[in-house]
From TrEMBL:
It holds the Pfam family Pterin_4a. One of its GO terms (molecular function) is 4-alpha-hydroxytetrahydrobiopterin dehydratase activity. GO terms for biological process: tetrahydrobiopterin biosynthetic process. This is 4a-hydroxytetrahydrobiopterin dehydratase. Its EC number is 4.2.1.96.
Length: 95
C-alpha cells in the first residue's frame, strides 16, 4: 500500500496514528480506562475479535490503558484489513 492510499484510509480512523517501527508502517491507538480490570477486559474483547477475523494486533495492556497496534505481518506493512480491524476495535462496546 502506498503512502497516498495510507493517508486516505487514515482519514476514516482519525483517532489512530501512523507509526513506523523497525521500518514497518503500522497504525496505533492508545485507549484509556479507569483501572487495570477495565483495560484487561478491553484487551480480551480485542483478542476475541481478532480470533474471529483471523488477524491479530500487538497489544500492550497496562494500568488504565491499552495500546493497540495493527499491521499485516505477512507483508510487513499495512493493508485494508488493518483499517477494518481498527474500526472494529473502535466499535467494541466498552466505553
Amino acid at each position: 500500500m502506498n503512502n497516498k492510499n495510507i493517508q486516505h484510509l487514515l482519514k476514516s480512523i482519525p483517532k489512530w496514528s501512523l507509526v513506523k517501527e523497525e521500518g514497518i508502517f503500522k497504525i496505533q491507538r492508545c485507549y484509556k480506562f479507569k483501572n487495570f480490570k477495565q483495560a484487561l477486559n478491553f484487551t480480551n474483547m480485542i483478542g476475541d475479535m481478532a480470533e474471529n477475523v483471523g488477524h491479530h494486533p500487538s497489544l500492550l495492556t497496562e494500568w488504565g490503558r491499552v495500546r493497540v497496534t495493527w499491521w499485516s505481518h505477512s507483508i510487513n506493512g499495512l493493508q485494508e484489513i488493518d483499517v477494518i480491524c481498527a474500526k472494529k476495535t473502535d466499535a467494541l462496546d466498552c466505553f
